[in-house]
Amino acid sequence: MAQDDDRTPEEEFQELLKQLFGGGAAGVDPEQLSKMAGMNIDPAMMQTVMRHLQDAFTSGGDEPISWEAARRQALHIANQDDRGVTAGQRTDLDQAYTLAGLWLSEATTISQLAEAPRAITRGGWVEATLPVWQELAAPVATSIADALTQALQEQTPEDMREMVQGAGKLMRTIGGSLFATQLGAVVGNLSKEVVSGGDVGIPLMPSGQAAVLPQNFAAFGEGLEVPDDQLALYIATRELAHARLFRHARWLRLHVISQVTDFARGVHVDTEALEELASRFDPSEPDELRSALESGALLPQRTDAQNAALARLENLLATIEGWVEVVTEDALTRLPSAGRIAEAVRRRRAVGGPAEQALNSLVGLELRPRRMREAAAMWRAVTDAVGTSARDALWDYPDLMPAAEDIDDPAGLVARLEARARGEAPTADEMDDALAQLLAEAEADGDPDSRNGRDDEEPPGDSRPV
User: Fold this and answer.
1) Residues of the chain with pLDDT > 90: what percent?
2) Is 223 left (phi over 0), alpha (psi -120 to 50) or beta?
3) Which pTM does this prediction carry?
């Protein structure tokens, strides 16, 4: 037993994991651990994660999430089959961007980008978008880390409880590292699916930047029977419209991300399900755990607050995507295959790819605008009624942007905009009526603020001495 007392922290760490995860051989088997996590991570990458976890014994940091591990894993996947961008592809896309910019300026009053659009690789997309993924996933990552800490502590053998109680920070690091590596796998696989910076629907690219991934663009066009130059022109126009909107409405980026994080903060792991699964887990048969992770079974049903947050987010994303669709359609009236490509894009956005579905399982969130068709119909009605200038002015300030009720009933929004165009005072709504009533009650009660500051003035009438 004296030999056991002389074990290093790393040896104790390995012994702990062997007992928790059922490992029987010396050291930790990265391949076994990756299977257990259901992440399909190659052993070399998991070995890197294990080194990070072991470093936690000597690290004094409080951050449980290894975002660098997420970055390495995402780039590892993205760069495996990345063929780069050829000079010919870059030239073709530059030409598409130039024409798309000219036609787009005829369809919207929102100005052009300050930076030239780019053709980027899959790895370039990962590098550009990972900061946003980190911001969106951080609340869920913390919840995962906390839940895994609790579950592992409760499943630890009795004779090792004391050691685990003294390693709470380490256990949070384990959970955080596993989550970060899984997030990296999702982002890396997404880099193989997206065709442009705005393809996912949220502002992943830095503000004012537009980008297309030529390698993925080529795969997307297979089976459409559309000339490559027309497909490139459509994708470039849509990407420029998306990037222009977020550059013009500078408040919109924060508005979208804050609504996503509001939803994510409400995500909590179902600790009872996790503990029940851990109690019967067999490392030689990891399929049940893998299935639970991939299906999102460990995420509990949404609360009412989460459902409300999700509804707000879906309406916001639909409003954005609907505007992009209408503007793109108007800009490409001279493109013969525009309608066919647009329908393919709509189907693709409605279904989502495998990596997007994995993101839903990871954070419990679908980033697909369910009401995009209704929102596009609203923007079409607005455009036909008041023109592009009045339509685009709705993005100038957050309080001007159409609400969910406007998607349901565009006629009300159109009537207000037409009245404004005629110079008529807007029709009072329920909020206006409530405010008027409050002011009237304040005046009736003799509120000094309602008397325009007359308290400091002399009372009316002749105040000269007799």
Assistant:
1) 35
2) left
3) 0.74
